[in-house]
């Protein structure tokens, strides 16, 4: 298939692009490069040995987005494009709602106009909001505790309404848990702008000497070691989950499907620190500090629905995640080159 990957220059998007190309798909990337460096494209071409068509485009621009569909014969869309920093979304709600909702609507409108009906959406476990049941299943109610999370909840609702209105759509809502890791080549990986919000890139930057120490946000949670517990999933497993979902919905007759993409393993902050230390051979200095507002104590995926219906399973361990992250970080101490 000819697959449009919006946000395809980003962390998860780029890893998914490589697997799409390896599987024989043609790929068109649409990215505004607001959170990705153009230098990644040459690495994708080099790693895949395949050409990639790239549009530098603001997908909130309906005319530009429609023009892309007029120029390219797209069979399916995997939609990653969107702002994704929880803290930033609290500070800039209008920007987040404008960008994330308008981007999704602009792409969906162009798809509708051009007869493209296969859509894989990058959703998030954040849509489960606060729930006393730590193991998340797809039938749980959705809510959010921040504007970023609400954009995911709202776009999921838009997609449900689209599927009800026209059952010729084939839509997958993929709810990611905590994506971490990097391509085994070490040539691409997570490269956050500025101070990392998320645990793994921060730990990685401490190990490589870019950061002095990790702040552990609380060790007084009701968890085995007192630190926050999450379900970390290797970005390569996450990418293969997208290909499995794309193939499944394209071949099926369900207008809309929902799947958790997680490992099902409950891993604490200190588990990550210790695993990274093993992988890198470096000590990871850390300091226990007060809890981060909005953080939940513990949650992880029940991935059985995806396992059963997609024939997909996350296979990489936290040690694999740390080893691959370290290879990327140690080869690229300052992330992707600017040029
Ligand atoms: C993981 C654990 C922190 C940083 C967020 C978004 C979610 C998704 C993934 C987009 C927590 C602790 C973290 C640090 C720490 N993003 N931590 N020190 O918060 O589970 O999820 O990213 O879809 O929507 O909410 O990920 O990596 O920020 O935190 O102690 O410097 O690490 O308290 O327990 P989180 P995270």
UniProtKB/TrEMBL annotation:
Enzyme Commission number, as recorded: 5.1.3.2
Keyword set includes Transport: no
A GO cellular component annotation in the UniProt record: cytosol
Statement: the UniProt record of this protein carries the keyword Transferase: no
Cofactor(s) required, per the database record: NAD(+)
Catalysed reactions, as listed in the record: UDP-alpha-D-glucose = UDP-alpha-D-galactose
PANTHER family: UDP-GLUCOSE 4-EPIMERASE
SUPFAM superfamilies assigned to the protein according to its UniProt record, in alphabetical order: NAD(P)-binding Rossmann-fold domains (SSF51735)
Gene3D superfamilies in alphabetical order: NAD(P)-binding Rossmann-like Domain, UDP-galactose 4-epimerase, domain 1
UniProt family annotation: Belongs to the NAD(P)-dependent epimerase/dehydratase family.
Pfam families xref list: Epimerase
GO biological process: galactose metabolic process
Keywords, in A-Z order: Carbohydrate metabolism, Galactose metabolism, Isomerase, NAD
Upper lineage: Bacteria, Bacillati, Actinomycetota, Actinomycetes, Mycobacteriales
GO MF annotations, alphabetized: UDP-glucose 4-epimerase activity
InterPro entries for this protein: Epimerase_deHydtase (IPR001509), NAD(P)-bd_dom_sf (IPR036291), UDP_G4E (IPR005886)
Gene name tied to this protein: galE
Subunit structure: Homodimer.
Pathway linked to the protein: Carbohydrate metabolism; galactose metabolism
UniProt-listed CDD domains: UDP_G4E_1_SDR_e
Organism encoding this protein: Gordonia malaquae NBRC 108250
Protein name: UDP-glucose 4-epimerase
